[in-house]
Protein 1
Amino acid sequence: MADEKIGVGVGYGKVILFGEHFVVHGYDAIVASLPSLKTVVEIKEGPWNMDEKVVEAFKRVLLALGVEGKSFSVVVKETVPIGQNLGSSAALNVAFARAVNELLELRKSDDEINKAAWEGEVIFHGTPSGIDNSAATYGKPLVFKRLGPGKFDIKPFNVGKPLHLLVVSTGQNLKSTKETVAYVREKKEQYPAMTNRVFETYGFLFKEAIKAIEEGELPYIGYLMDVDHGLLSCFNLSTDKTELARLLLQEARALGSKITGGGAGGNLVSLFDSEEKAKAAAELLKAHGFKSFYSVLG
Ligand code: MEV
């Protein structure tokens, strides 16, 4: 009964601490996968049972893994929240690639799984940098740089002092990541003199941010998050709910907060110097209708 064999795969969700959008254009970014956010799939050989777009993505994943002439039925056992800029499509592509790897005993390396998942991401996001699939694959904090289509440089980093993070959902999803990435590119091409300065400022900000994280300079990290948020806002990526959440987070003594992921809704990430403060902020936000979850890094 070879066809009844099951393959299981996991992919992780993520929060980008610094550098969404800038990363698409070759700048370094800082990302953390969140172990509490994961997608788990079980697959077996059989007719496709997912929607058309997902199957299209999975076919590209299979091609990259060197698998031909097979189809799979897929059961999603657990999922990263969808449409929230937390990397759900990347987590799904990685989970599928890992499940195929297990089922067909392909013995692919993490790098090969990552590259295959990126191929699937192209269907969802058009020109993905690869940051989401990399976080989904490796499941740890990374400095990520896009070197070219499907080519990445990935480095671990040290966290000097624990980063107490509250991830807040705006409850909005006004534009897809594909649309926000296209908008940033359009503005970059339309107004290069101005936007180049915004991008260069991010380049400087990244260097300050990685140093501050490694040295545990929490208040400065928070300030840099606020600045990064300002830079992202230059591309209309913030919304009324994002700004309301930021005001409440300030009231609750967050050190800083910013859009995380594509923006135009989705989630914010905010930094606190203790778990207690982060959890008190979660209560305040809840009283105003915002859902959030706490996670610690380092
Ligand atoms: C999406 O999680 C992050 C973006 O920078 C897009 C990408 O890197 O592919 C907005």
Protein 2
Amino acid sequence: MCGIVGYTGSRTAPALLIAGLKKLEYRGYDSAGLALQREGTLVVAKKAGSVADLEATLNRDLEQVTVGIGHTRWATHGRPTDINAHPHCSCGDEIALVHNGIIENHQELKDWLAGEKGHHFISETDTEVLAHLIEEFYEGDLLVAMRQAMNKVVGSYTVLALSAREPGRLVCTRQSSPLIIGLGEGENLIASDITALLEHTRKTKILEDGEFAAITADSVEIVNADGAAIETDIFEITWDLEAAEKGGFDHFMLKEIMEQPDAVRETMRQRIDREKGKVKIDDLGLSIDEITALDKLYIIACGTAYHAGLVGKIIIESLTGIPVEVDVASEFRYRAPLLKQNQMVIVISQSGETADTLAALRLARQKGLKVLAITNVVGSSVAREADHVFYTWAGPEIAVASTKAYLTQLVALYLLGLYFGEIRSYIDQSVAKELLEGLIALPGQIREVLSEASIDRLRAYCRHLAGWESAFFVGRNLDFPVAMEGALKLKEISYIHAEAYAAGELKHGPLALIVEGIPVIALATQKAVLDKTLSNIQEVNARGGAVFAITQKGFNDVAGQVDGVFYLPPVNDLLAPVLSAVPTQLIAYYAAVERGHSIDKPRNLAKSVTVE
Ligand code: M6R
């Protein structure tokens, strides 16, 4: 989620690193920093804010420096402050490093290093542990020390380091996080993204998980965890800069849709104890007494996050027995809600900066209620002002249309529901276990939904849809909020007027709008109401509507009654929204592509709405 770049050669490193970091800023970062080698010492400059803010602080006397590393941060552990910005240094400031990812056992390592080994820590980050850990093993060879240190680390990471005692040498490693070595003439580079390298070289070596590399201006040494040399092929990059930023996809939206298996997995990481069959989110800061005493929850959000809240209501009520009211933030504020003791407000916001959501949060706190925020941005206003925070680890979302953040918000709500349900002894152990196993399977199942063959099936229907100015989404129970989210996505980027209805409501009015060929997307993933949904589909069929159904494999009755069908892998009904949302995102995306619209920046919209 962070951006990393390193350079060793004969050109001015600070300018080159700053240019590289700017190329990575499209991912949206909150702080930046450099560590440079100068005459046997390390000079570190770092700052909360943009890369340009950092650039403004750099002294001219650094122009002679030709070796360094840089970082742009998307905060995970610790707020975006100057001190938490990377690089982080060892006690003696002899080693500096930058990191992308999460060190899962950082607390355990920190306790050991700060206690037994006497290291002094200054930041709130997990990353700083790595600088001290490598220092602990350092005996003059950074590559050896990094190999030994990483042996003790659990997590996903890219690490890039340099030592004041090894002029011209950069050392790096990776685990489940990208790292690319760029090969130049009399210079070499390292970066987390191809975008930071393209201006300098198209010849690269791609480091694999568990491999380590040391580079100088004219050498690249790659070894495995035991120190044995590894031969790596040279990979020539053919993408242009714009394609590289989007990871080779045509649009950020599609890239982000494709990132969903990882986003969902990251959001669950460390929050499920599979052995005990339990959710472990004790770091929320809510006591057992507080959770047990809850007699009502409000979920407040806007847009897509509001739709996640509507799914959350059904989940939380069924897993915890706590009544849940869901409100659009801009309505909640002005309707004098009857807030009482033993109630809690959950706000959901990807950006953590939405003005209406923030105002609702403030109102709830003013009235004496505790607020739990589900957000994707560490240190955002919502995160800072809430009493408790649950971070979704979707990574930066750039496309205005929210996709991966939505899926991770759903996951957060499942985890909260299971956690509260367990504490309140409301949920049956075997049900909890089944749902946990179901959650763990989701990333793989989302990947299946995203397979090329599945997408081809959708595209044919999207060509039909793109020719219409009006479309409907219908569903019952958990399928209804997913239908609402599908309609929002379609409106937002294809500009087709789309309405979502509870399928049972069609006959109470909207059926009058069904004409020959009009696209109707029917969500039919809920076993308990499948027959009812099929009857509603028949009502549409009878009036000539072109129904495309999204259903589960094994729901065989559906295919014969619709014009097109998309099968999801079999899934527990309660978890189905995480899978069924994905084809609706793809439908919106491909309909908009067919219509030739600006996908990532739809007209009249902004990613983060900071005005009321
Ligand atoms: O950052 P937030 O989650 O608070 O944003 C809320 C809405 O503005 C947002 O979900 C919006 O509806 C999306 N563009 C929909 O794709």
Protein 3
Amino acid sequence: MTERSPQFSFEFFPPKSAEGMEKLKTTRDELMRLNPKYVSVTFGAGGSTQQGTIETIQEMLNAGLDAAPHLSCIGSTEENIRELLNQYIGMGVKRIVALRGDMPSGMGDTGELHYANELVEFIRRETGEHFHIEVAAYPEFHPQAPSATADLDNFARKVKAGANAAITQYFYNIDAYLRFIEECNKRNIEIPVFPGIMPITNLKNLARFSDMCGAEIPRWLRLRLEAYGDDMESLKAFGLEVTTELSQRLLDAGAPGIHFYTMNQVGPTQTVMNNLR
Ligand code: FAD
């Protein structure tokens, strides 16, 4: 049996300024040396960063990287999404991360496509097999899901609609991922599910994100991180050790690779990648 080597991918967000873009280019150049399969660029809620996403994708393509824009459908029209898809095809984009997204506060109209499975169907209807489509998966379940089973049913709908692969929300509980994969196997869902890994470097930011997206920081981990207080260097060293161990255990357990939430930083992702066997 030939062993397939794990696939690594890196996620960035569009910088808000020209200076930020210059910084991101340096980050991109450093992280490119780690040979990612592709990089992805997020899309602000309700399309708020649309232009920034396009520009950042162009910068990634300019460097010869396979670049996947995230595309969310909530609050958007089919016409707007069609135009964006055509623009991406014109730019040479071959991958897309298809999401529902979240409604920005104050924005009333949810648009024409309400869930990610409808977006995947729309992309397939409009562009056939042009794009390799990634969708989101939630080993600890999406905060708005009525139940774990309903969320798994939703994941199955996205796969049936034509998704090629999935990236998970970040998590620090490996059992949640392994159980999720077990459930996928029971449902004959065969697409690869890449764990999304958020390197731990700062407790305050991590706790804020985690509350928003429903990712759990286990009690033991939160307490260990809190114990470092203002000693950010030691917290970061410990956090990256925990992140490395989680990543290594996932790969050892058969995860097909890892998608890093880089937060546009070189150091954390580079450290974890270098620490992996
Ligand atoms: P969906 O798969 O549509 O699910 C959303 C919720 O609706 C779930 O609770 C699901 O169970 C439920 N549901 C689905 N179908 C139905 C139905 N028919 N009836 C009732 N309930 C249903 N956000 C951004 O704004 N920009 C980004 O770039 C971005 N990138 C992301 C990348 C990854 C890898 C991940 C994991 C998340 C990302 N997000 C991003 C966050 C994401 O947009 C939010 O988590 C959002 O709330 C859900 O998007 P989704 O595509 O998972 O939605």
